[in-house]
Structure formats: C-alpha cells, structure tokens
Write a structure and sequence with these properties.
The protein is about 65% helix and about 5% strand. The protein is built from five helices and two strands, in the order αβαααβα. A two-stranded antiparallel ribbon has the order 1-2. α2 (about 30-55) packs across α4 (about 65-80) and α4 (about 65-80) packs across α5.
C-alpha cells in the first residue's frame, strides 16, 4: 500500500511540475491533481498497452516517436474527464507527458519495484586483507 501511495504522489508531482512548466497545461485544485494522478495510473496500466499494441506498425514506422503521441493522448483522456484539468492543445499534452515521464524516470532511480525507497551502501575494505583459512 505504501508503494502505491508513493507512486501516486510521484505521478502527482510530475503533473504538478508539468502544470508549472508547460504553457497550456493547467490543473486547478489539489483533489483534481490527486485524482488525475490516480486515473492516469489506471489509464497507463489498462488502456495504454492496448493502444500501443494496436498502433505498433505506426510506432515502428516512426522509430518510436509515435509513443509521444500515445502518451499525450493518455494525458488528454484524463484531462477530458476532469473540468479543472485543461490542456490547450496537442503540443502542451506532448510536453506535459514528457515532464511527467522524466519525473517518474528520475524517481524510479530511488524507488524499488515494490515502491520502497532504496538506499545502496557500498563498503570498501581498506588495506591489505587476506583470507587465511
């Protein structure tokens, strides 16, 4: 449950940063932000894989660049469902999805697969140690 909440807040952070950085990408209200993050997670888990599979030939033909349009469409779908979440156009959705994606990518460097914060400790031995058995 904690992992789910951490990932929800990461997506919410990405959406909030996108609303600050991308002109035409606007989210008004904390509840709209949190519910949009929740719905975006559901859309990305259920609908996005189907859309990627259906549009696979176009994605291959464009060397993967069509995935930007798919990601923009997923955010556009979520924005369409909320009155306080507005996107002014296609490019605002594309750049917003890039900000959300980069935020998630950076956060995933610190979050494990179960949603736990991971700390890597490297211990180095100093000096000459030999194993005498």
């Amino acid at each position: 449950m904690a992992g789910f909440l951490i990932r929800l807040f990461i997506v919410a952070l990405g959406l909030w940063l996108a609303s600050l950085m991308v002109p035409g990408f606007e989210i008004r209200g904390l509840w709209t932000l949190l519910f949009s993050a929740l719905l975006l997670g559901v859309v990305n888990a259920v609908i996005r894989p189907l859309v990627v599979l259906i549009t696979l030939p176009v994605t291959v033909l464009t060397l993967g660049f069509f995935l930007f349009a798919i990601n923009a469409g997923m955010i556009g779908l979520v924005a369409w469902l909320f009155d306080d979440f507005t996107i002014s156009g296609f490019w605002a959705a594309v750049f917003g999805s890039i900000v959300v994606g980069i935020t998630g990518w950076l956060a995933s460097a610190f979050i494990g697969p179960r949603g736990n914060v991971e700390v890597i400790v490297v211990r180095r031995s100093h000096g000459n140690t030999t194993d005498k058995t």
